[in-house]
Amino acid sequence: MKQTMNEHAIQKCIFGFDHIKRHWSDAHNSVMAIIEPGQFYVTQNPELIMTTLGSCIAACIRDPIAAVGGVNHFMLPVKGSIHEDKAQHISGAMRYGNWAMEYLINQILKCGGKRRNLEVKLFGAGGSFDTRSVCELNIKFITEYMHDENLKIAAKDLGGPNPRTIIYNPLTGKILMKALNMKPPELVEAEKKYSKTIDKSQEGNDVQLF
Question: Domain coordinates of the chain in residue numbers?
């Protein structure tokens, strides 16, 4: 009976997010959506969103008045085309970062949110010495983006040597964060795969702004 009740507790998600993994969590007594590198999720349901971050950034954004919010999980492309100079690559990387943020924000606005009401919390960009330059680039981007877009940071935990797991409640704005001693092997592989994907899209100039 309990399993049947839990299955019924998983409400239909917003159109376009059917691919996101969602399950009932007995530990948190809630539906939980799990997002991986490169994914986004927005909801108006009473559910949690979890992601594990290495060098990537997660922006947890909500409109507390409209009761809608979501999370993205992204990094900037770290390798440019051999035919472009450093300035060109940085410009392209910034465009990708802008797209990652605006996509999430636009989805929230489509669900009735107002830009002036947005509450933003930022996490991630933690890693070892070999990923420090990537982490620094991600932090620099998100800091400048927030300033340029006149968005206030309600809370943040960026940088440092440790990966993080965060669990976000978009309706209350509360976040549970756990620092990890080392990056889980599955996260290492997921970030590598994601990094190759966005590097390739940069070379093909496939990023579109809207």
Answer: 2-203
Query: Considering the entire predicted model, what is its pTM?
Result: 0.81
Class of domain 2-203: alpha beta
Please, what sign has the CA dihedral across residues 56, 139, 169, 27? positive
Instruction: Give the least confident one: 22-36, 132-146, 183-197.
Output: 183-197
Distances (CA, A) of 70 to 118, 129, 136, 200, 202: 11, 30, 24, 26, 25
What's the CA gap between 73 and 38, in Å, rounded? 5
Q: What does residue 12 show for φ and ψ, rounded to 5 degrees?
A: -65, 135
Cα(165)–Cα(122) distance, rounded to whole angstroms?
13
Number of C-beta neighbours around residue 196 at 10 A: 12
User: Both tokens of residue 111?
Assistant: 């669900």
Which amino acid is it at 116?
R
Residue 106 in this model has a pLDDT that exceeds 70? yes
C-alpha–C-alpha distance, residues 152 and 146, integer Å:
7
